[in-house]
Design goal:
The protein contains 7 helices and no strands. The radius of gyration is 15 Å and the shape is globular.
Length: 140
């Protein structure tokens, strides 16, 4: 399975989790029963990584929202941004530009017409924040 498909599947699972609070095993079991679904390791890694680090991820998102509060962000946009921020913080093998681009593509497919641009802006701001933090750590 391509990483793009893995991200999309992780997005769908995280979106479902936002309603049900079920873990990856339960969601995967349901998906497999509903259709012939194969779930790869990267999908599981993304899902578990986001859930495990959700508090830290949400802090980055909240600090970089412009004109919105975190509780007003759609569940679609939140699940998409969670994956991208997780990758920016913890997946060193994924270039930031790829992660942001993949998030924008998911938003175009699943979000409303304005969400892709908004998500792009928020993720771009988060990337700048992360770069500054890393430079500050290297400078000390």
């Amino acid at each position: 399975m391509s990483r793009r498909k893995s991200r999309e599947q992780a997005f769908i699972f995280l979106f479902q989790n936002s309603f049900t609070k079920e873990d990856i095993d339960k969601i995967a079991e349901t998906a497999k029963m509903a259709e012939d679904t194969k779930i790869d390791d990267f999908t599981i890694e993304l899902f578990r990584g986001v859930v495990k680090n959700r508090e830290k991820i949400h802090l980055y998102i909240e600090r970089n929202l412009r004109g919105w509060k975190i509780n007003r962000i759609s569940r679609v946009a939140m699940a998409i941004m969670e994956i991208s921020v997780y990758e920016m913080l913890f997946e060193k093998s994924v270039p930031v530009e790829v992660s942001i681009n993949e998030a924008v593509e998911l938003a175009k497919k699943y979000g409303n017409k304005d969400e892709s641009a908004y998500i792009n802006g928020v993720l771009g701001s988060i990337n700048k924040e992360i770069i500054k933090e890393r430079q500050s750590l290297e400078g000390n």
